[in-house]
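Supplementary notes for students who missed Thursday's class. We covered one full example, reproduced here. Read the sequence, then the structure, then the short commentary at the end.
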Amino acid sequence: MPGHGDHGGHGGHEDARPMCAMNMALNWSTDNVCVLFDFWRITSGMSLVFSCAAVFALGYLYELSRTRVRSWELVQLTGRARLETPLVADGLGRSARWMRAVMYGLLVAYSYSLMLIFMTYNGFLILAVIGGAIAGHYAYATDALGAVRGANCH
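Structure (token representation):
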């Protein structure tokens, strides 16, 4: 018969994971670092490698997303006759303005997610965000003022 201190059979406590490590200073920790979600944790060297690769890809794909949205906007503005009404001064119709607003909102959410990864203050993840942004910008920024456009964290 189990003793009073034995809580076997109650469940829940055996699988309890420690809280995510929260650092407010630059660190190079690989011990229980949560990345955006509780289930995305860095607990070993291998999970660090996979997490850095995923974060690099997120930074890279963010630059691709921005370029695609910009290209879509240019097509919308140059590929059709301009509408001249006081409410549509940019020449876009209502549905195109809604689409542009939704894409903008998605890009803002994406950029905030990258910012939150950056704010783990984990040096490995910071370098992965920056590396992905550099690689993506190199691959996709085709306009003359690409570096001037800046990040979208508001």
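Commentary. The chain is about 50% helix and 5% strand. The mean pLDDT is 83. If anything here is unclear, bring it to office hours.
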